[in-house]
Amino acid sequence: MARQEISIESDFITLGQVLKNEGIIATGGQAKWFLSEEKVLVNQEQETRRGRKLYPGDQVTIPALDFDALMVADEA
Predict the structure, then answer these.
(1) At 3, is the pLDDT very low, low, confident or very high (cuts 50, 70, 90)?
(2) From CA 49, how far away is CA 27, in angstroms rounded?
(3) Which residues contact 68 (CB under 8 A, 6 or more apart)?
(4) 30-69 pLDDT per residue, tens
(5) What PROSITE patterns does the record point to (predicted)?
(6) Which superfamily does 4-73 belong to?
(7) Has residue 2 got a pLDDT over 80?
(8) What are phi and psi of 13, to 5 degrees?
(9) How far apart are CA 72 and CA 65, in angstroms?
(10) Do residues 32 and 21 lie in contact, with contact meaning Cβ atoms separated by under 8 Å?
(11) Does an H or E element contain 48, and which?
């Protein structure tokens, strides 16, 4: 599983926003359902809250989708 980097333009981004921005879900409203159906790990711990704030250095992993991403600060 190749780790990708996701740039955060503000102080944080929510888990629901990451799922939508990466095309894992089509709408923000699907986040709650997706998190209840799939194993989503934030920093190696299972997470079910779509509003979970992610900061630079946080890692999101979805084993079923072979998805692994590291949050990084936007340098712009």
Answers:
(1) confident
(2) 16
(3) 1, 2, 3, 4, 59, 60, 61, 62
(4) 999 999 999 999 999 999 999 999 999 999 999 999 999 9
(5) S4
(6) RNA-binding S4 domain (3.10.290.10)
(7) no
(8) -140, 145
(9) 21
(10) no
(11) none
